[in-house]
Amino acid sequence: MMRQDDEVVLSGTILLGEELEPFEGHLCLRGGVVAEIGPEEVESDLLGIIAPALVNGHVHLGDSFFKDPPYLPLRDLVGPGGLKHRALASAPRREVVEGMRRSLLYMARSGTAAFADFREGGSDGVEMLLEAMEGTGLAGRIFGRPDPGSVRIHEKCWGVGISSTKDHPRSWVEEVAEAARREGKKVALHAGEADRDDIEDALSLEPDLLVHLTRAEPRDLRMVAEAGVPVVVCPRSNLVTGVGLPDVARMLEMGITVGLGTDNVMLNSPNLFSEMELASKALLHNDRQVFMMCTLNGARILGADDEAGAIRVGKECRIMVIDRRSENMAGSRDPLASLVRRAEPSDVLAVI
What we know:
- With 352 residues, the protein is α/β, with parallel strands linked by helices.
- The protein has two domains: 7-52 and 309-351, Urease, subunit C, domain 1, CATH 2.30.40; 54-302, Metal-dependent hydrolases (TIM Barrel), CATH 3.20.20.140.
- It has 13 helices and 15 strands.
- It has a nine-stranded parallel β-sheet. The protein has a six-stranded mixed β-sheet with strand order 3-2-1-4-14-15, with helices on one face.
- Strand 8, helix 5 (170-182) and strand 9 form a beta-alpha-beta unit.
- Helix 3 crosses helix 4 (122-133), helix 10 crosses helix 11 (287-293) and helix 11 (287-293) crosses helix 13.
- The radius of gyration is 20 Å and the shape is globular.
- It starts with 6 loop residues before the first strand and ends with a strand.
């Protein structure tokens, strides 16, 4: 096979297409686009498990400087006036930016290609994240919040991210959502995290995305499914805050598109391998579905299918290569199962 200057050749087990079917062979990238996939053994740049890079569907990067606080109830930790917001209010700007940048670099090195951040701090909070993102190569979807007393959303935001509708005056929430719609931006909300009494209220705003739904009952999930609203779940965060675990199996049975996120960096590292392991072992016992949640589903939810998502010929892809010969991965009999249940950031050879 003739090599071109902008060409990268990978070989091993390729998780192909929408079904993530394992395929033994090689893959050729030219200019970031999959130009060729074949079964032949060829000279390659890297050998391993070749998979779509990860998509972190929900993260709060702003509290990266304030890791591992005391165990407290959810509202005392992250609610209005809670520990997180007091820490953010008193932290020097450079400390917040540096914390976010370190988290972003960790994500980039550990297989993540795209993420969605719920951005506190109004316009300045967005500017801090944009500064932290420079040179990381990550595709970011910023869900911002207006400055106090305003409904204006920063022009660089992909959407608006609102905590529970119970945290704000209803009139303000409606104005912010309407302002976002006028500007062609998405509307995302936390709902059903500590209890279920804000789910119907959130749905009345016709959101593009809901986060958590930990306390959702079957009747709530039916409404979400009927509305066609995707959901991002964050099980490790839910365990830290003591609110329980979401019924992901029922969500999927009802046809809800489900993504996976790591939530607040102060509570958990932005490590989707840890999130996948918990989801597979505790929630689903379905490795393919779990991997879809933090790759293909996440890309669809964030409108990032052109930057991430399925591997197929003719498509621009973000690809991660996992070392199947590492001490951790050696002996694997099912590459997809091992990737979901035991792979770690240290097993990532490259993100391309």
